């Protein structure tokens, strides 16, 4: 998997109007500039936001790509959850390392589509605050 190149592409689409223009005019020409797997290419072309999430794409980058492709916020969130249900757990990146987090004040918050993960030693992963 070439997560770095997927994220680089999405970052450049968000930041560079010329890359975005070229992508909209000839997606395959732009995609040829990146070392991407067939699965990544399919997820970008479709677009399959859920699969991109499962592949480990950072949510900040992914939300901009989803918006570029016309996803309203609630559809973007649902696509991530559906991606986990359809493609399995997150495979790489930061989201593969975290599970359910606890909000300040003790309220649990579920990560999109995920079961709680455990830290080494069997302890549930928790979000730490700066207290």
Description:
This protein is mainly alpha-helical. The protein has seven helices and two strands, in the order H-H-H-H-H-H-H-E-E. It has helices at residues 3-15, 17-25, 27-31, 38-45, 49-55, 59-68, 73-87; strands at residues 101-102, 108-109. It has a two-stranded antiparallel ribbon with strand order 1-2. A hairpin with a 5-residue loop joins strand 1 and strand 2. The longest helix has 15 residues, at 73-87. It is globular, with a radius of gyration of 16 Å. The model is unreliable at 100-131 (pLDDT under 50).
* Oligomer classification: single chain
Strand order of the largest sheet: 1-2
Radius of gyration: 16 Å
In whole angstroms, the N-to-C terminal distance is: 38 Å
Helix content: 40-55%
- Structural class by SSE content: mainly alpha
Overall mean pLDDT stands at 80
Determine the strand fraction and express it as a percent band: under 5%
The strand count comes to 2
The general outline is: globular
| SSE order, one letter for each helix or strand | HHHHHHHEE
Low-confidence stretches: 100-131
How does the major sheet shape up?
Answer: 2 strands, antiparallel
Helical run tally: 7
Features:
131 residues, mainly alpha, two-stranded antiparallel ribbon, 7 helices, 51% helix, globular
How is the secondary structure organized here?
Layout: H1 3-15, H2 17-25, H3 27-31, H4 38-45, H5 49-55, H6 59-68, H7 73-87, E1 101-102, E2 108-109
Antiparallel strand pairs: 1-2
Helix pairs in contact: 1-2, 1-6, 5-7
